[in-house]
Write a structure and sequence with these properties.
Structural class: alpha/beta
CATH architecture of one domain: 3-Layer(aba) Sandwich
Shape: globular
Radius of gyration: 22 Å
Helix content: 25-40%
CATH class of one domain: Alpha Beta
Number of helices: 16
Strand order of the largest sheet: 2-11-10-9-7-3-4
CATH topology of one domain: Aspartate Aminotransferase, domain 2
Length: about 475
């Protein structure tokens, strides 16, 4: 019999990693998915008499969605089995018409831009505040947000990311007040914040802070299987019928009952165990973080970040840097993976990032931080290390043409250096986390190409750049 490649590959990965800080949020731990996981065939059914229908629910699926809405304080909640990208695209296209303009946070996920292509929308960017000292995008400026709404009254919708991939948060309640002052719809991409609702030690959840629409990845920070997501409608400013129409169009017509069961199960589990386990893990995280910070190790922590000008921080995000020792984030990630069998979520030039969820045990967190401490003490012996500096990834972008037009335009492959000054025909995206450096229709600048080269040299995958270091530009 031929080798079962995927099964063999997963078994090989599991044999090499015994502690993980990456999604999905259940972390592969026993006891959480047992009822579903041990009976996949039993729960894998389809729409027939007595099984309800995700697209037109009237029975137990409808009841499940009402339970989820009640748990999050939303007016209406939808289970999304195509991932949060589907929820984001459905919400944006359901609230706009072709030709409308929306304002988006520039470091948003690529699904927001995909919605603009599919919906033929115009874009304005709200750039995050880049902190050169720490090499991170900090909170957005609410003053700039309001000014843009004053200057561009045709903006119909505002799409912001909360928290970011690094756990950075802005004042979402104040942002909602500003957006609604000018009669616009506020959508929050809370893909990395599905857990915020379950602990008072975390930043406030967007769904109870004034957002009109919230898209969440339950599979990222809840004990849910991959692709399980939730879309919340939180106000009467939104045309629910339009969004439901887009969900029916964009979601599969054969939705997975296994995934739907996993979404609901994860919310039930969090209602029962989430607050206690999150609070416990946050306490461990803060204790270990302060221990490492007192040694001189740069691990992000909310009090420290707030003192540096950041509004708030999600203390379930382990964001670690040894750049003062000249160690790239990707290098630290590799040391953790291959020496300690600990797998993180992703790394960039400066930071290594991991997710702590309610399913983690205190010993998991302590093992990670003890490994980081050991690495730091060992690497500190090298006196020749130089400090690394994170490059600002988003120079102000110049639109040469509409994104949709560029996406469908004739194009050709060119070398990286040859692309400078040309119009991008497709996205250039470090992955993970999936934030575009360049979108179709934008002019490619030298600074961006230098950044791409640096990432490629340090083992970071950049989607849109092929194996020959070429990318596509509009002819």
């Amino acid at each position: 019999m031929d080798k079962m490649n995927i099964i063999s590959g997963i078994k090989q990965y599991r044999s090499e990693v015994d502690t993980n800080f990456h999604m999905p949020g259940h972390k592969g731990k026993s006891g959480i998915l047992d009822e579903i996981g041990n009976n996949l065939g039993f729960y894998d059914i389809t729409e027939t008499i007595g099984t309800d229908n995700l697209h037109y629910p009237t029975g137990f699926i409808k009841n499940a969605m009402e339970f989820i809405a009640k748990s999050y304080g939303a007016k209406k909640s939808y289970m999304v089995v195509n991932g949060t990208s589907c929820g984001i695209i459905s919400a944006i296209t359901g609230c706009t018409n072709p030709g409308d303009k929306i304002l988006v946070q520039r470091d948003c996920h690529k699904s927001v831009y995909n919605a603009c292509i599919l919906g033929d929308l115009k874009l304005d960017y709200l750039y995050p505040e880049f902190n050169k000292k720490h090499g991170l995008n900090f909170s957005i400026s609410l003053e700039k947000l309001e000014q843009m709404l004053v200057d561009e009254p045709e903006i119909k919708m505002v799409v912001l990311t909360y928290p970011t991939f690094y756990g950075i948060c802005f004042d979402v309640e104040k942002a909602a007040e500003i957006v609604h002052k000018y009669g616009k719809i506020l959508m929050i991409d809370e893909a990395h914040g599905c857990h915020l609702n379950f602990s008072k030690k975390l930043p406030p959840a967007a769904e109870v802070s004034g957002a009109d629409i919230v898209a969440q990845s339950s599979h990222k920070t809840l004990p849910c299987m991959t692709q399980g997501s939730i879309l919340h409608i939180c106000s009467d400013r939104v045309d629910v019928n339009n969004i439901e129409t887009m969900l029916r169009m964009l979601q599969t017509t054969s939705p997975s009952y296994v995934l739907m069961a996993s979404i609901e199960n994860s919310v039930h589990w969090m209602n029962k165990y989430g607050e206690e386990r999150l609070d416990r893990n946050i306490d461990v995280f803060k204790r270990k973080t302060l221990e490492l910070r007192n040694m001189g190790i740069n691990v992000l922590e909310d009090d420290f970040l707030i003192s540096e000008g950041c509004y708030d921080f999600d203390p379930t995000r382990a964001v670690i840097s040894m750049s003062d020792l000249g160690i790239q984030g990707t290098e630290l990630q590799d040391i953790l993976r291959y020496k300690y069998n600990i797998q993180m979520e992703f790394a960039d030039l400066m930071y290594t990032v991991g997710y702590i969820t309610a399913t983690d045990e205190p010993e998991d967190i302590e093992r990670l931080f003890d490994a980081v401490k050991e690495i730091y003490l060992e690497e500190s012996k090298n006196k020749d290390k130089r400090e690394l500096v994170q490059i600002e990834p988003f120079p102000n972008q110049v639109h040469a043409m509409k994104m949709r037009k560029a996406f469908y335009a004739q194009n050709k492959l060119v070398d990286l250096d040859e692309s400078i000054g040309r119009t991008a025909a497709e996205f250039i995206i470090p992955y993970p986390p999936g934030i575009p450096l360049v979108c179709p229709g934008e002019i490619i600048v030298e600074k961006t190409i230098e950044y791409v080269k640096t990432m490629l040299e340090n083992g970071i995958n950049v989607n849109g750049v092929d194996k020959n270091n070429q990318l596509r530009v509009v002819i």
